[in-house]
Amino acid sequence: MLANPVMIKAYAEGIPEMASHSPDGAKIAKILGKPKTIMPASFSTEKPDEASGALSAVGLMEKDTK
Are residues 2 and 31 in contact, defined by beta-carbon separation less than 8 angstroms? Predict the structure, then answer.
């Protein structure tokens, strides 16, 4: 997830869980990729090491009350 300084400041100050309480001018971007295994484990693990693979979705949010 990415955010502009307005949203980062609000998050650091502990904004309420509801997005409607985000400050005006807050911007967030969420970029999702399909996970891909980057290194098979040579021992038993519950989940292999993964990295972001092909882009699967992008979500954007901007709070603008004007």
Answer: yes
